[in-house]
Amino acid sequence: MTGRIVSKVRKLFDHPGFKAHPAAVLWRCAALLVRVALGRPITFHLTADGERLQVPANLRYTTLTAFVMRDHLEPELHHLPRLVRAGDVFIDIGANIGVYSLRAASLAGPQGRIVAVEPGADALAALRRNMALNPERAVTVVAAALGDHTGTATLYHVGNGYDPQAFSLLSDETANGEESVPLTTLDAMCADLALAQVDCVKMDAEGVEPLVLAGGRATLERFHPAVILEMNIATLGRRSSPTHQAWDFLEGLGYGFHRIIDDAPVKLSAPPQDFCNVIATHPANDRLGGLL
Length: 292
Hints:
- This protein is of the alpha/beta class.
- The protein has 13 helices and 13 strands.
- Helix 3 packs across helix 4 (61-69).
C-alpha cells in the first residue's frame, strides 16, 4: 500500500500539469476530496476561455484528471490552440464527457464546427449535460460508434480505467456488461453532415482505431486532417490484436508522426511501445506549423 501511494505521488509530481501549476494542482486535490465527501456533482471551468464541465463526485480517472489537471489533462489538449484555428472543423471520436469538444469549440469559434461522436449511454448522457452547460458553444453530438461499415454493434463495458470512456467495440476478460449501439463510418457521417472541410480529428476509440480509419479513408484522402491518435498498445496486446495497424494505415496515406514530450513535439520514426497519444500530420496540411 505504501509503495502504491508513493508511486501515485511521484506520478503527480512528474505530471506536466503539476509542474506548470503546482500550487493550483495541490489546492484542487484538496478541494476534490472535500467535494467527493459532499457527494454532489462538480462543476468547473476547464480554461480561462470559460468552458464549463460537470463531473460526478468520485475519484475515478475522468473526474480526477479533468478537475485537477484541467487542460493539462493530456499534452495534446493543452496544445489544442495550435492545432485548431478559428473556422476549423474538429471531429472528436470517443468524445466521452466532451473535454476536447468544448475546448475545440472555444478555439474554432462561431464560424467553426465541432462534431462530438460518442456511443456509450453513460458517457453520452454526461456529454449532453456538458453541452447544455455551454449553449453558446455549438457542438453537434452524434450518438453512434464509428467503424468500417454501417449497422449496429455491441459496445462492451470493459474494465480499463473503470470509467465510461473505456467502453469498446472490442471485448476482453475485463468486460462486465454491454449495450447495442448504432454503427456508422467516418466517411458516411461526414457526408450526412455535409462537411465541406475537416481540419483536425481526435480519435480515442479504445482499440478500434484501425476500423475507424478504414471507414474514413475518403475523408482522410480528401481533407488530410491532423489526427490526434491514441496508441492503445496495452489494450490491443491484451486482446492479442496487432498494435500498429492505425499507424501503418496513416503512414500509407503519407502521414508523419510526432509525440509531445516535456511540452515539446518530438518526431517519431517508429510506433511508440507504450500507451500514449501521437499527432499524425500530412504534408498537404500546414496548420501545425506553429507546433511542429
